[in-house]
Amino acid sequence: MNNQIIKNIAAKNGWNVFVKELPDRVFFDFQRKTLSGVSFCFTADMKDSSMEYLVREIVSFVDAIEPETCAAEWMIKSGAVIPYRYKQAVEDMDNIRTEAWLLACELAEFSEGENYLFRLP
Q1: Cα separation of 41 and 11, whole Å?
Q2: Which of 71, 76, 112, 114 could form a disulfide with 89 if both were Cys (CB 3.0 to 4.6 A apart)?
Q3: Alpha-carbon separation of residue 109 from 3, 9, 34, 66, 93 (angstroms)
Q4: Model-level pTM?
């Protein structure tokens, strides 16, 4: 799979992507702003040029996001304990989860004619 295709699909979905290639893996840093304008980034890797592996990594990330927990952790780290910021942080993380899921769906749809989504848990 051409990394440029992945970058194009990500860009179409509002993500910037930075790629780091190693002999047996490629790491993709997906970056975007949250709804409130805070920078957000997550990394997924692709092993053996397998789009299925990359899609599963992104879905695993999506499954791990618990918006309320992420918002509380962010507030503790940033010191921003104003209640409306918590609500906004929850909305931001919920939106990030949705956007990452949509990215995984489009990558799966594009990949080599196989529909990996039917095999995802």
Answers
A1: 14
A2: 71
A3: 16, 11, 25, 25, 24
A4: 0.85
Query: How many whole angstroms separate alpha carbon 82 and alpha carbon 21?
Result: 41
Q: Which two tokens mark 8?
A: 């194009």
Residues in CB range of 22: below 8 A, 6 or more apart = none
Question: Could you count the other beta carbons within 10 Å of the beta carbon of residue 42?
Answer: 18
Contact by Cβ (8 Å): 10, 30? yes
Half-sphere exposure of 117 (CA within 13 A, CB side): 13
Residue-wise pLDDT for 52-91, tens only, equals: 899 999 999 999 999 999 888 888 887 777 777 888 999 9
